[in-house]
Amino acid sequence: QVQLVESGGGLVQPRGSLRLSCAASGSIFRINTMNWYRQAPGKQRELVATMTLGGSTNYAGFVRGRFTISRDNAKNTVTLQMNSLRPEDTAVYYCNAAGVRLYGASYDIPYWGQGTQVTVSS
Length: 122
Fold this sequence. Notes:
mainly beta; four-stranded antiparallel beta sheet; elongated; eight-stranded mixed beta sheet
């Protein structure tokens, strides 16, 4: 019923920039918090950045000051601008819609995107 599709990953040199995008489609009334997570090989998935429906943001310490999350509530999209990338930022990045309310529903459901690979290497 709902699909989250990420785009924008790729290979970038250290200190470079990438912009990830995530578009949610379906019969969506609203989306509460939208998040970006990442998972590096052999590591657990970790929260990178969060943005609430009202526009409040929060960042993991390891990206604060380098990454910026934004969203367009009308279009159900969320982006992650990543600057000053480091090799340790290499991971699969996942978009997460933490609470999706569909039209006609009385409860929220979380959804995940399929992930997009970000590789930071010279």
